Amino acid sequence: MSAKEVSSNDASIAKVDMKLEIVVIPVSDVQRAKEFYAKLGWRLDADYESGKDFRVIQFTPPGSACSVIFGKNVTAATPGSAQGLYLIVSDIEAGRKELMAHGVEVSEVFHDAGGVYAGTDQPYLFGRLRANGPDPEHRSYRSFVSFSDPDGNGWLLQEITTRLAGRIDRAETAFASINDLAGALRRAEAAHGEHEKRTGQRDANWPDWYAGYMVAEQAGGEPPL
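Above: the chain's sequence. Below: its structure in C-alpha cell form.
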C-alpha cells in the first residue's frame, strides 16, 4: 500500500503522540547564555561537551514540558534570531515580578490595542499596536510581558487563564505547575460560592463541582451552573 492510499481518517491507524520537547536557540557566547538562563531559575538538565568543537546545554522552564537547548555547533542560525518564544503564565503580574526578582530586564505589562498580539515581539508589524497595561477586560491570551536574552533572542510571557475550546481534551486535563493548579482551585472556589448563592443552599458535593468547573475551564467549555 502506498502512502497515498492511506486515509488520515482510517480508524485502524493508531494516533502517535508527537510531543514538542526541545526548542533550539542560537547564541554567540555559550557560557554567558548558560549564566543568563540559570539566573532565570530554570532547571539545568544537561551540559555536555565533546572536544573543543561541540557543546550542548539544556534548560527547562518551571512547570514546562518543553526545554531549550543551545551550545557550540548546535545550530547554524544567527545568534539572536529566535523570536516569539512564548512562556505561558496564569498571572502576568506575578510572572513579571518573578523575572524582575531574578534580575531580568523586562517590559511593562502590555496588550494589543487592535486585538490578539501574536507572533514575534515586533509591535509595528502587521498592524499591531502595543498598549500599556493588561487587557482591560482581563481576557485570556491578551496580556503580555517581553524580555530578551543577552543575544537578543526574544521571549514573551502570555497570560492564559481559560483555554480556547478544543485546546485541551477532557481526558487530558493537566496543570503545568502548582501555581497553575492553585489558581484554578481559587477560581473554582469563587465560582462555587456564586453557585451556592444562586441555589440558596450549601453544596455538599463541592469536590465534583470543582472538578467539573476546572475541566470545563481548561477545555474552553461551559462550566457547571
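Residues 170-219 form one domain.
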